[in-house]
Each structure stands twice: as structure tokens, then as C-alpha cells.
Design brief:
- The structure holds two protein chains of two kinds.
- By secondary structure, chain A is of the alpha/beta class.
- Chain A contains 19 helices and ten strands.
- In chain A, the strands form two sheets. A six-stranded mixed β-sheet of chain A has the order 6-7-8-3-9-10, with helices on both faces.
- In chain A, β1 and β2 form a beta hairpin.
- In chain A, α2 crosses α4, α5 crosses α9 and α7 packs antiparallel against α8.
- Chain A is elongated and about 120 Å long.
- Among the domains of chain B are: 174 residues, no CATH class; 114 residues; 70 residues, P-loop containing nucleotide triphosphate hydrolases (Rossmann fold), CATH 3.40.50.300.
- Chain B contains 18 helices and twelve strands.
- Classes of the chains: A alpha/beta, B alpha/beta.
Chain lengths: 573, 580
Amino acid sequence: MMASIRSYLSSSKKLLALILALGTTTVVFAVGLMFVAGYLISASADNAFSLLMLNIPLAFVQIFGLGKPIVRYIERLKSHEWVLRLTSDLRYKLFRAVQAHERNHRRFMTGELLGSLASDIEHVQNLYLRTVFPVLIAWIAGLLLTVIAGVCSLALGAFALGMLVVLCVLLPLLALAINRARIEGTQQMRANLYASVTDLVLGAQDIAIAGRGSEMRARFMDRFGLLRSQQRVIESRDRLRLMLVQFLLLISLTVLIAWATSAFGGGRGGASDWIVAVALGFFPIIEVFAPLSQQFEEGLGHLDALKRLDQRDLLDFQEDISEGSAAPNAPFDVRIGSLTFAYEQGKPALGSLSLTIPYGQKVAVLGKSGSGKSTLARLLHGDIDPTQGTIEIAEVPLSDLRPAIWDYVGFVAQDSYIFAMSIFDNLRIGKPDLSEEEAWHALDLVGLEAHVRSLPDGLETLASEAGLNFSGGQRQRLVLARVLLQDPPIVVLDEPTVGLDPLTEQRVLDTIFTLFASKTIVMITHHLQGIDAFDRVLFIEGGALEMDGTPDMLEHTNERYRQLRAFDRGFLA
Amino acid sequence: MFDRELLNLPNIRSTLVVLVVWSLLEATCIVGQAAGLSLALVGLWEGARFEQVIGAFSGFSCSFIAVRLVLNARERFIDGYATRVASTMRADLFDSIFRTGAPAVQAFGTGTTATMLLEGVDKVQDYVKLVLPKFVNMAVLPVVFALSIWIADWVSGVVVVILLPSMILLMQLIGKTTAERSRAQHAAFKVMSNHFVDSVRGVSTLSTFEVSKTYASRVFAVSERFREATMRMLKTATLSGSVLDLFATLAIAAVSIMLGLRLIDGSLVLLPALFVLILVPEYFRPIREFASDYHASLDGVNSLRTIRTMLAATNDVPPEVDLPRWERTSVLQVRHLSKRYDGVSALVDDSFTLQGFECIGVIGVSGSGKSTLLRILAGLEDPSSGTFVFDQTQTTSTAQSHGTLRQASWQQQIAYIPQDPYIFRGTLRENLTLYNPHASDARIDEVIDQLGLRALVDELPAGLLSIIGEGGRGLSGGQAQRIALARVLLDEGRTILLFDEPTAHLDIEMEYELKQIMLEVMKDKLVIFATHRLHWLDSFDRVMVLEAGSIVEEGSVNALFEQDAHLTRLVSALRGGDAS
């Protein structure tokens, strides 16, 4: 059906067939129960009947009565299992795809987009459980009953087929055709309204300060009212459709009874028992077919989610890339030659940058936001590839190092992620074969040991979603511990202290210099706190190198640096 | 799940009465349907031709169609009621969200507030619309059907009457064990889905460690583990539904066998037997339908409760006072101000005075209480204790004293600018004129130039009418600050500026540019400015140094440096301990 689930569908054919068979059996049993029960009592009312002859219908009543709920129970379990397996499969693919996407397109996806991808998967679950399975089962059971009707009488079979097509195909499709635009419009309207209201609540305090609360309230209550009136139109059409279905069902039952009377009627009891059986057997069918159109419409919304998953081209991705096997030897000098980089559309973020960073040097990279300093950081740790020019570590190009790049370059981002796993698992990302002892040692070095020991679960404490359990300083320390365990000779840090207050910032900087004393440090920064501890200051502007020198030298020779320095230190510098 | 909470809904009693009437109508139609059909079928069974039973069959047909008419009419009725309930609730919530000081957001956070206003109210509406009629059906239909069956054949009547309570008993037994499990399952589901979103969001971090290939398998493994856990859970969770199913089908089987035996020995005739057999499935239908909506009803009741708590908690509006306009001669004395959160003190007994258009710096490390102090002065939070005394010496001789600044007449005069000012989804023009929607185009143009926003306006595709904010074009931190400042300039009534660390996250050159602009805006205003960036110090007339919620020092910067105490120590610490 859809690219994203095709492979799963073909690998799970057997289970799928079992689910459909079980579902159909449920319908057949339900019909059978009422059919046999009807026959049983009318046959019993024939005075000619003996207790002995009732044995067969009695047995059937018991089989159907017990069997239907049991089969239904198994069917529910199996269909959930099928859907959950599908979900696992989709999650795996999606995760791999996001990774590939970020690398291939040289940009990160927003959290919002990722969140919606994840929720689309939930929609796919509902699509199958609430729409695809019930509708398929209704069709199969409907066809089966039509065949039975056809065996009894060709005319009846033809009628049943006609009714089946009307009830199961024409009516749902018609309803869909009429309502589709409006349903989609309403969904869109709802999504927009809800996004605006959420945004409004985020700024509630400012709205209140602006004194515009009652104006906003009136405006949005109007929009809620409009949405509701749209939904009401759809609902009243739904009611009309249900009325139509009820009519069609009545006609079917009338035809069925009329046929049964002509086939079996005419005498008291005997063959006439079948009239009662056929009439009663019809009622469970109503329960299967009446909600069909509704299920169709509900499926529409979920189907869009599946389409979105497909449209994003996410699930057909290319596994990258050439893998090098070069192993550079110490000293790990970094040489950057005529480095140019441009994002997909737009002017170059870096233009022809050349410089050498000897092993062990501590380099601060300064520049305005948008100057290209973060791009440099991402290029240095191989997250993106240069458009032109080279980056070499100990004379080996970075591209030849992949995937071992991460053995040589460690990276601490502004918002390095703390996963919703235990502290130990978060650290193990840096070193897969981490021992508990090493973990404590690393925590000790970044100054977190005492804090973690004070937690009731110690290393096993869950670093809750996005690491909210930790303060800003503690988060960065945890990330530093991760890089420390990774133990690369070169550490690139992209504004690791943004958002921290100066005291905490200074402490984190002190930790960084102690931890990585023997390593190369390249730190992107937006102000001058702790700048004197660096060996070298680079100033990037418009993608080019504007200043380069020791802090001391710049202080003496560069007027602009001196001004900024004075400004940063503030009053009484 | 019928909850007492429901009885607090407006007009609920009369609504329930109407629903009972509709249920009685539905029941009558179904009984009529059963009677008509059994009469017709017995006629046919006895050898009549179809035309001969047309009377009885028409009775059946009319009832069959009437059932749908009744259901449709009831749906329209309850839909109207549910919509009214939802819209009243939403209007009340809007009120408590946008009332002075945004009390709902303050007490419950933006996340919960937005969720309740949108999905929460939807759930209540669904609950009223779907669950309420089913609940009433469950109370009415079985009674009518049991009575009808009893009249037709009292032995069958006894059987079904005995079956129902034992079924409910069994349901409760299973319900108790499954409720626990389904809660646990819900929690497991949350963990699972968080984990997935979490891993996907952190994918860029993972790829810097090149563990993501193994991590993908890990995502798969967790998902699989969740699947197995869910399956175990479902095995019992779906049991209660299946037991209901079992009861209903077994009852049909048992009743038909019992009827059969009594028909054979001649103690019963076909007509009542058929009537009973047709009604038995109907007898169990209401409880099965109700059970299938168990989760919707649980969600609905929980949302209803949360919304009620929310509305009740935000109901205490301080009596409205007309605070005087802030002028050059105004004086506000703040006395014994304290604020505690859950027993933890954020501000401890602080007293100070604000006068005219002075510029006051609030200095302290993170956690010293700067932000709390500013939020209280902005009227965004109430202090735990303390008073505000206005002394408008020029106009009145009497002092007014208040326990909170959560007053519309105060908030009309202030602007509160945090590190990341709120840029809402809308046009740039709408964002600029948040405080004063009636600002003239000429004035807007002037302010754009004054604040250095011209480049942004030129760069945007539709200029002032371009959509910015979430979903629109993202802005840099410096641009957001400029927009916040423009809002102040566009509303001349705003003479009190509260800044909470507005420049710390900007790169140093941006900060330098913005500082020059801010100094212009701050002229002839009362400014209270919380920061730990030291270059601001020489812009302040006066500085308050906060430590652990207490004002430990207050005075001009020079005077405080001469004292060589708290401020001196703080400054040397903030500079990285390299000088003292």
C-alpha cells in the first residue's frame, strides 16, 4: 500500500491472514448463534419434535455461544500484536532515516517536526486497529454471506451482492466524497486554531500586561464557535447517512423474509422453522455493517499520517558513505586549508579559511552570531563536509577517518543532549564498554561524584527527559564526562557555557581546562569570560579570519579587541 | 463511570431527565420492534403468506426506523448541551488565563494550561456527548426489557434478572485487576513514547559518538520490549470486554435452550419465546456499549476535575484598585517583602523604595532571587507577605497600601522584558503593536529606525506584514529584544521598565550595539534591571545586591565599592576571580 509499510506487510502475511480469518469467524459465529437459536425454538415448537433430535442444534448453540467471544478475544490480541510489530519496524526505520537525513541535508530537523513524525506512527496504529481490520473483515464476511445466499438462490445472491456493494463500497465512498473536503478543512482549521491558542497561552503574561486579554478571548471564542459549526455540518450528514443505512437494512431484511417465506413457508412448522432462523440470523449482521462508513471517515485522518511519513522521503534513504581506514599518528596537529562551506541554498558560511592548530593548543573562536563560527565547529568534528578545501588531522584528511573520526575529535554542543536513560547509560554513550569504576572516576573528575552519590539510585538514577533533573552547570558537566570517557586528542566545544551565570560558567571553564589540559581545545564562545586562559584567540567575521593571536598580543595590538575586552569586564576595568 | 463531579455541570439534572425520556422512547421502539417481528414470524411459521402478516411487519418496520429517528434526535439534543458546557468552560478558562497576572499559567504552567484549554475541554465535551447517553441507557433499557420479558414469560424474566447483577459483579472483579494494569500500561506507553521522541531528538548528539547505528537497534529493542509488555497487559485488559461478550452469547445460548425445552414439553408457545429471544441480546447491549467507552469516560472525568481545580484556584482576584500614574515625583515603598515556594524562601523580608524615573540595578548570582523580585514587581506573582505603599505626594496626601501589584492599573504602565521576550505567531506589525494596537504607521516607522529594525523589515518577504514567531520566521535573540523595546516605545503610557537579564545570551558585539539602544529607551523611565553582566553597572543610579533572597547592600555603585563589601566581592567573583 505505502512505501513505508510495504516490506512489513509482505513479511507478516501469515499473521495478517490469521487475523482476517479470526475476524471473519467471529462474524460467522455471531450470525450462526442467532440463526441456530431461532431454528432451535421454532423447531421445538413443532410438537412433532423430540428432545433427541434437538441435540445437533443444541451443540451448535453451545459452540457458537462459547466460540464467538473466545475467537474475538484471540483476534484482538493478534491484531494488536501485528500493529505493535509494525510500530517497532517503523520506529527503527524512522530513526535510521532521521540520522541519514541530517547528514545528507547538512541541517538538523526541528524538534517539532520530529515530534510530529513520532505521533504519526501512533496514527498508523489506529488506522489499522480501527479502520483497516474492521473494514476488511466486514468485506470478507459480507462476501462469504453473499456466497451462501447465492447457493440458496441465485436471485437472493444477486440481491445480497448488490446490497453489499451499496453498503460496503458505494455508501462509504460517497460519504467520503461528499465529506472529504470538509473533514480535511475542519482538521486543518482545528490544527491552526490549536497551534495559535497554544502560542497565545505561552505569552499569556504578556497579553495580560498588554491588557488585551478580553479582546483575545473574544477573538478565539469566535474561532472555536466557527470550528464547532463546521463539525456540526459533518455530524448532521453522518446522522442522515445512518438513517439511510437503517432503511437499506430494513429493505434487506424484508427481502430476506419474503424470500424465506416463498422458499420454506406455506405449512405450520417443519420447513417454516427456517424462516425464523434466517430472520434472527440477520440481526448480528447489522452490528457489523452499520458502523462501516464511520470507520472509513475515521481512517481518513489516520491515513494522512501515513502519507506524511511517506512524503517526507524519509524511509527510502541511502546508507552512507565511504569509510576510510587511515590511522593518524601523534602529534595530532589540525591543518585547515582553503576551507569553504556553503549551506544548501545561500551564501557561503565560510570562505577560504586556512590555519594550523598545533596539538595541545587551546583556541577560542569568537564572532557574531551568523559569522560562521558554529559552522567551523561542525566541520571540525565531521558532522558536515566542506564544500571545498580540506581539514587534516596529522596529515590525514578528515574524510578518510570516517567513521573513526570520533576517536580523534570529541564534541560538546550548546545543547548536548541528555537522554532519558540512567546516568550510567548516558555516560556509556561515550564508551560502550564502560565499567562502573570508570564511570565514578569520570564523575569525580567533572565534580559530579558527590551529587550523584547523594541520589538514592546513584548511577542508575534516570536523567529525566531532556535532562531536566540537572541544573545547567550539572548538565554540561555530565556531557563533559561523556567526552572525557571517549578520550579523543581534540575537543571541540560550541558555546558550552551559554545560559550559565558567570560564576557557574567560570567553574565549568576551569573544569574544561583541567580535564583536557594535554589535549587540543577549540572552543566557540560568544563573550570573553575566561579568555586569558587560552593560547590563541581567533575572531571570525563574515566567514573569514579577522583576528588571530594570543590574548595578550591582541590586547596590546588590536584596538577593537581592547574595546570589547573593556566592555566585557565592564565598569572600572 | 458516573462521577459526582458531573452533578456540578450547569443544568445537569434537567438534562438527565430529558435523556431518561429519550431512553424510554428508544426502549419502547425496540420492544415494539421485537413484538412486531415475532408476531409476523409466528404468522409465517404457522403457514401464512407474507401479505397476511403485513400489519405486524409494518409495525416492526416503523419501530425499526423510529429507533434511528430517536437516536438522531437525542444526539442533536445532547450535542447542543455538550457544546454549551464546553464553550462556557473554555470562556472561563480563557478568563483565568488572561486575567491580570495570568493566574492559571502561573499556578499550573503553560503546558497543563494549554492542554486543558484545548484537549481537556474536548474530552469533557466528548464525555458529555457520548458517555452520558450511554450511561442513562444502561440504567433505563435493561429495566424496560426485563419487564417486557417478564410479562411475556416470567421464567425467562427471572433468568435475565439474575444474570445481570452477577455479570456486573464479575465485571467489577475483573475491572479491579485490569484497572491497575491498564494504568500501568498507560505509564509504560508514556515512557516508551517519550523514549522514542527522546532518541530521535538526540540523534545529532548520538551521531557525534557514532553509536547511533547501535542505538537504532536499541530503539528497536525497547520498542519490542514494550510490545511484549503491552501484549501481556492486553491479555488481561481485554478480558473484561471478552467476559461481557461471553455472558451475552452464553445468555442467548442458555435462554434459547431453556425456551426450546419448555416449548417441547408444551409449557410455552412460540410467540413469547421468539419475543424473548429477540430481546435478550438487546438486554445486554447497553452495558457492552458503556464498557467499550470506559477509557473515554475516565479521561473525561479526569479532565473535568482538573479544569474545576484550575478555575477554583484562579478565582481569587484581588479587588481592583486604581493605582496612580507613575510620574517623576512618584514614590513606591515596598515593605517586608517575602516570597516562599513550597516552603523554600526565594525572598526574605526585603524593604526598599522606588522613586520617580530612576534606574536601579539588581545584582546577584543565579538563584539569589532577582527574577522573583522582578516578577512580583511586574504583578506576575503575588508575594507571600509584604505591602506596597504608594505615596503620590503631589496629587494626594494619603498613602495607599496594597498586598500585591497584580492590578490592571499597574500593568498598563509596565513592560517586563526577560531574556527571551515573547514573540507570538503573527505579523511583525502585530508583534510591534502588542501594547498599543492603534499605533500609527508613521510612529511605527520612526521606532523601527530608532531601534535598528530596518534591516529586518527590509529582509522579510512581506515587510511589516510578514508572519514571524513560532511557525513563521525565527528571529535572533537581538532582534527579539529590539521588538520588545519597540513595543515599549509605541505605547507612551509604559513608563516602568522591568528587565530580567536581557543581554547575557547575546554575542558580545550584539550586546554592545543593543546596549546603546536600550540606554536611549531607558531615559525618563523607572527602570529595574536584573543582571550579572558587569558593564551595566555604570548605567545604574542605584544598585541593590541580592544574596539568598535578601538585599544585603543598597546604594550608588561608587559608594558600594568604597564600602568594599558585598558588591566588591561579587564583582571579583563574576570576573573569574582574577582580580580583587
